[in-house]
Amino acid sequence: MHSPCAGEASTPCFNGCFSSSFLASEESHTDTSVNGSRSGYDFVAATCSTLHPNAQFTNHEALPSLQESYLNFTKAFPLYSKTLKADQIRDQEYYHLNFSNLCFDYTGNGLFSYAQRQRSCPGTSIASSSSSHPPPLIPLEPPFFDISYKSVNLHSQVVYGGDESELETRIRERILAFMNFSEDDYALVFTANQICAFKLLADSFQFTPNGNLLTVYDHKSDSLDEMIKSCYKQGTHVLSAEFSWPDLRINMKKLRKMIMSNRDKKKRGLFVFPVHSRVTGSPYSYMWMSVAQENGWHVLLDACALAPKEMDTLGLSLFKPDFLICSFYKVFGDNPSGFGCLFVKKSSISALNDSPSATSIGIVSLIPALRKPESISDEEESEPEPQSEPKSSKKVETCGRLEVELRGLNHADEVGLIGISSRGRYLVNWVIRALMSLQHPNSETGSSLIKIYGSKINSHRGHSIAFNVFDWKGEKINPLLVQKLADRNNISLSNAILQNVKMNERDWCEVEGAGQLRKKTMTTKQDCGISVLTASLNFLTNFEDVYKLWSFISRFLDADFVEKERWRYIALNQETLEV
């Protein structure tokens, strides 16, 4: 049996495709500034030392305590103490995270804090001059806004802009600054959501005849699917990068060949690229963007998996994409509604269709949210304030104007790039190490409880983990069932499907469980969807969160855990639930 710490080195995989001098400087910057270690191998060793290198746990009751685990964690990563600003912010502004579900299902950036959501517009009172008229509309507190769809095509919106509320202006300016983009270089277009942003760009991009769409995704994406559908309708060729099994690394030779096929500068193509996989956390080199641009591609950077402040990294400050998409939600762990952002490089506007008939579905304006007061007291109705003293209207106007304070973005700025990056890397690699230490007791094969897909212990990886849980027979437990049980235990996980992975029948048997071979006869196949669980860490995630995730997953070491949960549910709810 392999030691859980027989992991991969944390050096990026570039395979000689790019300039070694640049990569050396970038890697040394990352290791010394972000991780505080001298090499990727030192980082792996430090991660392994958080638990004994050969430690294996076969009983969930044998796990070390939270206190003992945290002590070992901070000994291995002493620089974690420099990120405690995030804990202070969490306690003061996001205190709901300490008693709500553990949030491992959020990606994107939070605009406001939970404390802001609790703050009402101070001093506002309701007055009505006549009982025959409805009460006035009162702006909600700052964290809330509405979206209004606009009838304009993307090209016109980027070139001419349009009327916008003061709220929208302030949010747009703040987001541009947060993303480290200059208004001189990029235009920001608000969309209803991330899916709309992808579809809008696909509908508006002027693919030349026989043009290409080339994507680099190791997982199924609803947003990307909408883009691909639009491209097929336009007669565009759709190409996808291929990923190897089991490490899910890019097949670099094949991707390079596909990029080079677009050398004809008259053939306009779109290269869609994420810096990290949103599902597996696998890191990809920024240099792919440069290679694509050198070969005539326009580049769309999918930044939805980037941690806050990662736009300030060296690679992204050097390689400016033609387009960038990201998303923002209102409050982390409480209100996931929000909007998508499509950034368009102004020098790339000519690649957009400027026809008046071009599709424009998805562009929105941000407007202050209004609501009717819930109730008016009898005293207020019977004793209206004099018309000569419209105090309430002044207060409403003042409230409607509350400066737009995007405290969620301010908090990310306070913790900073180094704090967010190092905190995330310490925590995600610790929980990977911890999960890999779980082994089934007395199993025929000595099998691991958990299989992690893609990047494992790696100082350059993103902050998401893709994994599955296997029983003592080696059969994969349905990820949807694990997700349901996690939710019942106040842990929110996501699920996803890995794709574009080159596998053979033996690989499929390994990943789905031995019994699956009897259910499915399979020849060598690239696009075999693999259902997985995924956990994403945010800069507000703390050590206790990841410890609780480890503790919950360890309960599957008990062969009767699922059945016990079924009977517990029946006892509590007096009904049968199929799990």
Tell me the Rg in angstroms: 26 Å
What class would the helix/strand composition place it in? alpha/beta
> Span between N and C termini?
32 Å
CATH class descriptor name of the largest domain: Alpha Beta
Can you count the beta strands?
18
Output the CATH homologous superfamily of the largest domain.
Aspartate Aminotransferase, domain 1
Descriptive notes:
- The protein folds into 2 domains: 251 residues, Alpha-Beta Complex (Aspartate Aminotransferase, domain 1), CATH 3.90.1150; 224 residues, Aspartate Aminotransferase, domain 2.
- The chain contains 20 helices and 18 strands.
- The strands form 5 sheets. Strands 2, 5, 6, 7, 8, 9, 10 and 11 form an 8-stranded mixed sheet that branches. Strands 14-15-18-17 form a 4-stranded antiparallel sheet, with helices on one face.
- Strand 9, helix 12 and strand 10 form a beta-alpha-beta unit.
- About 16% of the residues have low confidence.
